[in-house]
Structures are given as C-alpha cells and as structure tokens.
Amino acid sequence: WISRNASGYQPAYEVEVVDTISAGDAFSGALAVALSEGRSMEEAVRYGAAAGALAVTKRGVQTAMPTRAEIDGLFNRDVP
C-alpha cells in the first residue's frame, strides 16, 4: 500500500480458502469503514485484509461477508 506519507506491505492472513469471489468486496468495504473511522492507512489495510481473509473461508458473496465482530476478532488476534 502507498499513501501520501507512507508505504508498506500487508501479508495475507493464513486461512483455509473455500471461495475467493468475495475477497475484494470484503477488503474494499472494510478498508473504507476503517478509513472513515479515522484509522491509519496501515491499520485500515490490515483491517481490510482481515475481512478479505474471512470472506474466502465461505462460499458465495453475500453469504461470505464477515460480520464486524468476526473482522474485529481476527484483526485483534492475529497480525500476519
């Protein structure tokens, strides 16, 4: 990732992949939420990565979207 003041790399969370179709949507939505809440770009990208990782563990698109609690749980528990 690159922002005006910094750049970095976000490794992927290690999960068992079932279906990748919703990964980008989950990432983008969570990234937008985190930025709108005032998180740093580094935290926002990691938050998006957590959402994307959770989304690929389920089939489908809408049915694969993680809840806020699920994202927070992975985000707070694991730092890849």
What is the alpha-carbon Rg in Å?
A: 12 Å
> What is the helix content?
40-55%
How many DSSP-defined strands?
Answer: 0
Judging from the principal axes of the Cα atoms, what is the shape? Answer: globular
Would you list the SSEs in sequence order as H and E?
A: HHH
| Sheet of most strands | none
Q: Structural class, from helix and strand content? A: mainly alpha
Low-confidence stretches: none
Q: Beta-sheet strand percentage? A: under 5%
Number of continuous helical runs: 3
Describe this protein with a few key phrases.
80 residues, mainly alpha, globular, single chain
Textual characterization of the structure:
The structure is a single chain. With 80 residues, this protein is an all-alpha fold. The protein has a domain at 23-77. The chain is 49% helix and 0% strand. It is built from three helices and no strands. It has helices at 23-36, 41-55, 68-77. The two termini are 15 Å apart.
Brief characterization of the structure:
Helix content is 49%, strand content 0%. The protein is an all-alpha fold.
Task: Break the fold down into its secondary structure elements and pairings.
Layout: H1 23-36, H2 41-55, H3 68-77
Helix pairs in contact: 1-2, 2-3
